[in-house]
Amino acid sequence: MPVLYLVATPIGNLEDVTLRALRVLREVSSIAAEDTRTARKLLSHYGIRARLVSYNEHNKAARIPYILSLLREGDVALVSEAGMPGISDPGTDLVAAAAAAGFRVVPVPGPSAVVTALAVSGMPANRFLFLGFLPRRQGERRRLLAEVRGLGCTLVALEAPHRLRASLADVLDVLGDRRIAVCRELTKAFEEVFRGTVSAALAHFQEPRGEFTLVIEGARTDRAGEQGGGEALLSGEGHGTTSPLTESQKEALREELASLREQGLRAREAVAQVSARHGLPRRLVYRLWLESASRPGQGGLC
Questions:
Q1: Which among 149, 150, 257, 293 is most buried, taking Cβ atoms within 10 Å?
Q2: Element of type H or E holding 215
């Protein structure tokens, strides 16, 4: 049975490609590439000649059936513009379609901007939440940041240069002046890792250039009130006041929280989501979370 290989490619430095990746790229009958220009640069550097097929967000609907037909003839490699295919790119849809059609899908791991940025940031990496590219629209971006404001784990996001300052401003306003590592052009000639506060990053990046990965400190309960995102879980600060809830409204919220618990969410994340969704103080939502608990040992942090 032919195989769809998910081949990780360098995020910048061409020397970061693995020996296995080069072997697979030489052996497959076709390579589906998110950016054929970037793929040709890599293939040319290593003297690899292969049939390239463009596969991206704009043509994926038409190209998936065609790539599946290529798979019936032989192995196909999928490469993204940089890093691991299927992470914040259209590769997810092709993987799902190939698996549903009965083809084997085999990962060939390698470079990752997310892991690289986490490692060099100096922040806790034992638990982190990857947000992908931050939403382009400010309203959507601020809503996402509000949802994760209370999470104690490190946050990682991707951002384009022309939106960096607007995103940093929203991070500062919604999450507070937390520690941040702004990683620019990782593994490339002009690589830069800025470590400091969000406000300092805004002052530093006046004319951003290149591709950015942001590593943002999680909420810290030992600094309640110091940062917008560092308040204690039980604090209702920043959410305003609300009129008393009826018992039926409380019961509906308990059911919503219980459902989030069953989905695997922990206390901080569930409370943050419900609080932001309904505009309720976290103190109140957390009390309902405790009331909704059906089993002991639930409700840990992110």
A1: 150
A2: strand 212-216
Tokens at residue 51, please?
A: 């049939």
Q: Contact, 127 vs 266, CB < 8 A?
A: no
Q: Give me 46's structure tokens.
A: 């290593």
pLDDT by residue, tens only, the chain of 302 residues = 899 999 999 999 999 999 999 999 999 999 999 999 999 999 999 999 989 999 999 999 999 999 999 999 999 999 999 999 999 889 999 999 999 999 999 999 999 999 999 999 999 999 999 999 999 999 999 999 999 998 999 999 999 999 999 999 999 999 999 999 999 999 999 999 999 999 999 999 999 999 999 999 998 754 433 444 333 333 333 333 344 678 878 888 888 888 888 877 888 888 888 887 777 888 888 888 888 774 344 444 45
Tell me how crowded residue 115 is: count the other CB atoms within 10 A of its CB.
15
Full-prediction pTM beyond 0.85? no
Please count the residues of the chain. 302
Whose tokens are 């405790």? That residue is: 290
Alpha helical stretches, state H, 86-229:
91-100, 113-121, 138-148, 164-175, 198-204
Element (H, E) at 271: helix 267-278
Positive or negative torsion for Cα 35, 60, 57, 142: negative
